[in-house]
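Methods — Computational structure assignment.
A single polypeptide chain was analysed. Its primary sequence is given first, followed by the predicted tertiary structure written as structure tokens.
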Amino acid sequence: MIEERTMSTAVTPRTIPAGTWSVDPGHSTVGFSVKHMGIATVRGEFREFDGALRVAEDGTMSVEASVRAASIDTREAQRDEHLRSPDFFNAEQHPDLTLRSTSVEQPDDDTLRVIGNLTMNGVTNRVVLEGDVLGLDTDPWGNERVGVELRGQLSRGDYGMRFNQALGSGNMLVGDRVKIAIDVSLVKQ
């Protein structure tokens, strides 16, 4: 006789409940990528950041986040030092990159759209980040968590980062378009 087993799969709702959700830096990444010489992609991360997602009882959401410019890491010390200089982030004069949302939408359980003002290198511009709500769960210590991935892009020239060099091929040393990749685990406070 063959025994039949029924597998039960719990579906976790992904609508983010009301409360303040803070970024857990140990389980999160703030990254970027940019073209080098038009033929390769350089990827990097910021190692120091914090932020919060606030969800009101009516479902209205807001985001505030801050990244330390000097914490940039592209796995190449000389390049990182140049990126901290006035040619790029000017980390000494402008130590933080900040994001303050003007609108946060969760059109369905799986997606999130953050529109806000990103200040970097002393310049503020509108940015749109779109992504996924990966799920909600409670960790072994009783903390409620939500996972979110966001993607976007910006022009570094719009933030006063115009350092470049033309190459003989017609390509530029550093691409203007920067792709943003944010993967965060948020813990309910």
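Note: Residues 5-12 have pLDDT under 50 and may be disordered.
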